[in-house]
Amino acid sequence: MEKNAAHITIEAFEALCRREANFVEQYGFVTEHIGYGTARARLPFDDAHIRPGGTVSGPAMMALADFAMYALVLGMIGPVPLAVTTSLNVNFLRKPGRADVLAEARILKLGKRLAVGEVNLSSVGSDEPVAHVTATYSIPPPDRRE
Amino acid sequence: MEKNAAHITIEAFEALCRREANFVEQYGFVTEHIGYGTARARLPFDDAHIRPGGTVSGPAMMALADFAMYALVLGMIGPVPLAVTTSLNVNFLRKPGRADVLAEARILKLGKRLAVGEVNLSSVGSDEPVAHVTATYSIPPPDRRE
Amino acid sequence: MEKNAAHITIEAFEALCRREANFVEQYGFVTEHIGYGTARARLPFDDAHIRPGGTVSGPAMMALADFAMYALVLGMIGPVPLAVTTSLNVNFLRKPGRADVLAEARILKLGKRLAVGEVNLSSVGSDEPVAHVTATYSIPPPDRRE
Amino acid sequence: MEKNAAHITIEAFEALCRREANFVEQYGFVTEHIGYGTARARLPFDDAHIRPGGTVSGPAMMALADFAMYALVLGMIGPVPLAVTTSLNVNFLRKPGRADVLAEARILKLGKRLAVGEVNLSSVGSDEPVAHVTATYSIPPPDRRE
User: Fold this and answer.
1) What mean pLDDT value characterizes chain D?
2) What phi, psi does B12 have (nearest 5°)?
3) Chain D residues in contact with A132 (beta carbon < 8 A)
4) Residue D1 pLDDT
5) B129 at A interface, C-beta within 8 A
6) Mean pLDDT over residues B33-46, rounded?
7) Yes or no, beta carbons of B20 and A52 under 8 Å apart
8) Residue A29 in contact with residue A64, Cβ under 8 Å?
9) Of A46-60, B130-144, C29-43, C44-58, highest mean pLDDT
10) Phi, psi at D47, each rounded to 5°
11) What is the pLDDT of residue C127?
C-alpha cells in the first residue's frame, strides 16, 4: 500500500459506522472523501436539526465535525473502531444558511497514541466558514483495538 | 422577582425548545432543574445514541452539555431564544455506562454580552465524571432578542 | 506510601523546576501546596507582567495555570519531568486586580497515558474567579521517563 | 484607507506594546508582519524559555500565540489597547527545536464584538507545526476603547 493512500475506503468506513455507531444514521451524514490526512463529510439540511432562529443547530455541527475527524483518523490508521475523541474545541463563527453543511478535516499531527486534527465547516453555497473545530483522538494500542 | 430566582421556569423553557429547537426532541432531553446560576439536564439512555464500544456517543454528550448550558443561560437572562453558543470545549474522561447521562451546569461569569459556564457530565449510578465541558454563550443586545 | 499522599514534595518539585525549567524563575511562581489530586500555586504581582489596562497579562495567567497543572500531575505520578502539556483551554472571566493570582488545580482524570485537570484562577482579596483552565498532560511510558 | 490595508503599522503596534504591555519585553517578541487579516510574530530562541527536555516551554508558545493574535486584531480594528483575549485553546503537536518559533495568525471571523483567529506555530528550519492555537478577542464598544 502506498504511504499516502487512505487506510480505509468510504464503503468500509460507512459499513463500520452502520454496524457500530447508531448515532450516525440519526443525522444522515454522508462521507464524501477519505484520503491519507484529509476527509470530507456532509450534513444534509433537515428541519429536524434546526435551532431557534431557523438555522442548523450547534450540536449537529459538532456531531458532523466529530464524524469527519473519525473518518480522518481511520483513513490514517485503518479500521480501528475504538479510536475515541478525547477532546474537542469548537468556535461557532457565523449562522449557517438553510443548506447542507460541509466539514473538511485535515490532520495536524498523527502520533502513536494521539491524533490531532482541525475541521473547517461551511454552508454549501457560501464562502465563509460557519465553524472551526480542533479535536484530539486517542488511538488504542495495537493489542486493544477490537 | 428575587435576584436569585430563575428567570425562566422549566415549563416555559421546554415549551420554547419544543417550538423552536427541533433537535431537542431527537435526543429526548429532560430538564431537571433550572436555578439562577445552575441547571441540570438528563439524557435518557437509548440505543440510538451509542458509538463503537456500546457506549453513549460523544456527540450525544456534547449536545446534552450544550442543552444544559442553554437552560443555565436562560435561567439567568429569561426567555431569549437567540442566545447562541460561541465556543465549547469538551474533555472526555471515561466511558459512560449503559445508563442515563446527567449534566450539571453552573455559571462562571455572566457578563452583558457573554456568559461562560462549566458542565460536569456523569453516568447515573457512578461517582466518576464522564466528561467536562466549558462553553461560552453570546447574549444578544436588548433590541435584538426576538 | 499512602495511596492519597502526594508523590512529590514541594521542595523536590521546586528543585526539579529550578534545574530544568528556566521559565519558572522568570515569573517567580510559588508552589503553595501539592497533594494527591490537588495543587495550588501563586503568581506574585509584579509590574513586569501587566498588560494594557494595568492588569496581570493573559500569558502570565496561562503560564501560572500550566505550572499548577505540572505540580498537580507530578503530585500524582512522582518526579517525571517529561510529562508535557498536550492541550490547554482557558476562559478569561474578569480583570484581575493589582494583586497576586492564585491557581487551584484539581484532577479530573488520571489515566495511564493522559491526565486531565482543571484550574481555577482568582485574584487574592476577591471571591470571583478571574480565569478557568482545563488542560491535558501526556504521561510518558515508564521506559521513557528520563 | 484601502479596505485591505492594515489599520496599524508594525511601528505603532510595537510602540503601544512597549508603553502598555511590559510582558512583551520579557519574551523579546518580534513583530514581523501585520496585514488586514494576517499577522506574523517571532519568539527568538533563548535559554530563559526552556522547559524539561531542553525545548521551548508551552507558556512561551502560548504567550507568542496570544501576542500574534493581538497584532492580528489591532491590524483589523486599529490601535485599541483594551481589546482582550476571552478564550484561547492550544494543541501542542511536536517538540520545538532549539530554534526561534514563528507564529502565523489569520482571522476566522471579525464581528462587531468578537474576533476569532487561528495561529500556526512552527520551529524555524522545520516544516512541521509545533502547536496550533485558536483564540477569541473581545472588542470593546467604540465609547470604551481608551
Assistant:
1) 91
2) -65, -35
3) 108, 116, 118, 134
4) 43
5) no
6) 96
7) yes
8) yes
9) C29-43
10) -60, -15
11) 85
D48 touches chain C (CB under 8 A): yes
Average pLDDT of every residue of chain B: 91
pLDDT of residue A49: 80
Q: Which residues of A touch D129 (CB under 8 A)?
A: 108-109
Residues 81-120 of A with CB under 8 A from C: 86-87, 89, 113-114
Task: Tell me the average pLDDT across D82-106.
Answer: 96
Instruction: Check A57 against B23: CB less than 8 A apart.
Output: yes
Looking at chain D, which residue has its C-alpha nearest residue A132? D108
**Residue A19 CA to chain centroid, in angstroms?**
17
Query: C81: distance to nearest CA of chain B, Å?
Result: 23
Closest CA to B25 of B40, B8, B46, B9: B46
Distances in Å between the Cα of D129 and the Cα atoms of A107, D94, D101, D123, D132 are 11, 7, 10, 7, 7
Give backbone dihedrals phi and psi of B11, rounded to 5 degrees, phi first: -65, -45
Nearest CA in chain B to A21: B51
Please name which of B87, B99, B98 lies closest in space to residue B42, comparing C-alpha atoms. Answer: B99
Percent of chain D with pLDDT over 70: 95
Q: What is the DSSP letter of A99?
A: S
Mutation site for B-interface testing, chosen from D84, D85, D86 by largest number of B Cβ within 10 Å: D86
Q: How far apart are CA D95 and CA D126, in angstroms?
A: 11
Q: D69 Cβ partners below 8 Å, 6+ apart?
A: D39, D85, D88, D105, D117, D119, D133, D135, D137
Q: What's the confidence (pLDDT) of residue A146? A: 58
pLDDT in tens, B68-114: 999 999 999 999 988 999 999 999 999 998 999 999 999 999 999 99
d(CA A142, CA C7): 31
Low-confidence ranges of chain A (pLDDT < 50): 1-2
Contact between A90 and B91 using a beta-carbon 8 Å cutoff: no
- pLDDT at residue number A1: 43
Ranges of each domain in chain A = 10-144
Q: Do D136 and B87 touch (CB under 8 A)?
A: yes
CATH 1.10.8.80 fits D10-144, yes or no: no
Q: Does A129 touch chain D (CB under 8 A)?
A: yes
Stated as kind and residue range, the H or E segment containing A66 is: helix A58-77
Which of chain D's residues have a Cβ under 8 Å away from the Cβ of B141? none
